[in-house]
Structures are given as structure tokens and as C-alpha cells.
Amino acid sequence: xxxxxxxxxxxxxxxxxxxxxxxxxxxxxxxxxxxxxxxxxxxxxxxxxxxxxxxxxxxxxxxxxxxxxxxxxxxxxxxxxxxxxxxxxxxxxxxxxxxxxxxxxxxxxxxxxxxxxxxxxxxxxxxxxxxxxxxxxxxxxxxxxxxxxxxxxxxxxxxxxxxxxxxx
Length: 168
Fold this sequence. Notes:
The chain is an alpha+beta fold. The chain has a single domain, classed as 3-Layer(aba) Sandwich (Rossmann fold), CATH 3.40.50.150. Helices cover 21% and strands 29% of the residues. It contains four helices and eight strands. The chain has helices at residues 2-12, 51-61, 101-110, 140-143, and strands at 36-42, 62-73, 82-83, 98-99, 114-123, 144-145, 148-152, 160-167. The strands form three sheets. A four-stranded mixed sheet has the order 1-2-8-5. A two-stranded antiparallel sheet has the order 3-4. It has a two-stranded antiparallel ribbon with strand order 6-7.
């Protein structure tokens, strides 16, 4: 789907704005090829057992003035705090670390990024993540505690997403 979305956007972008999606995972790319002006990591970081290794890998792919656009789950907390769910988080498997914004900023600095900018922090809403005729599966409403929508069904804080932009 993301490749088709990219092709759609590419069709309407002016030729002066070269834009391509490479349909590979980061593991399928050669190591340390600093060739990309922008790398998007969207909803990936919290699925990584080693989120700092992921940030280092991305940095090794960025051109000298390249930028990372990082969208990920975050939780409230001080620098150094990260939620490590015992099992699932909002019914998601394979969720390892959900950092606070201050922790994520520290991780980015530790991995050598500069010009770190927190662009947005937003709670996920029922309007944006819902069942539709195209998507019949569970939605946010079923991932949250029916008696307390500020918590997941497992008792963790409800999903909140942050977008960071950082330079190599």
C-alpha cells in the first residue's frame, strides 16, 4: 500500500521534486550507504528490540545533510523513562520500547543526530483509527479499556504519537 501511495504522490509532484520509495526493509539495504536525503521511520521504532541500533542504521543511510522523519509511539515521562510492555500493547504484538519524548530526544542525540525538532505530539483518536468498509478489523475503540479510554485494554497509557525531525 505504501508503495502505491508513493506512486500516486509521485505522479502529482513536479519533476523538480524527485521522490521515490524503495520497497525494502532497512535490513535488505547495503550497510552504511549515506545516499538518502530523507528517511521516514513511521511506526517502526517501538517494534525494534534495539531502538538505538535502528536509529544508528538510519543515520548511516542519510546523506551528509540528510534528515530523519521519525513517527513513533511515546508516553509521558522524564528523560530516561521508557515503557516496556510485559506482553501486548493496545493488542499489538512485538512492542518493545515506548519512550518519553525526552528519552527519545536523548536517544537521537546519543546516536549523533543534530537539529532535533519535536514537530507534533498527538493522542490517537477514534476518528483517525476506526473500522471502515475498507478495514473491517479491530480499531482503536477495541484496543482501549471500555471503562477508561485513557488506558489500553492491558492497562497501559492510551496511544500517543510523536513526530521528530532530525539531521545527520
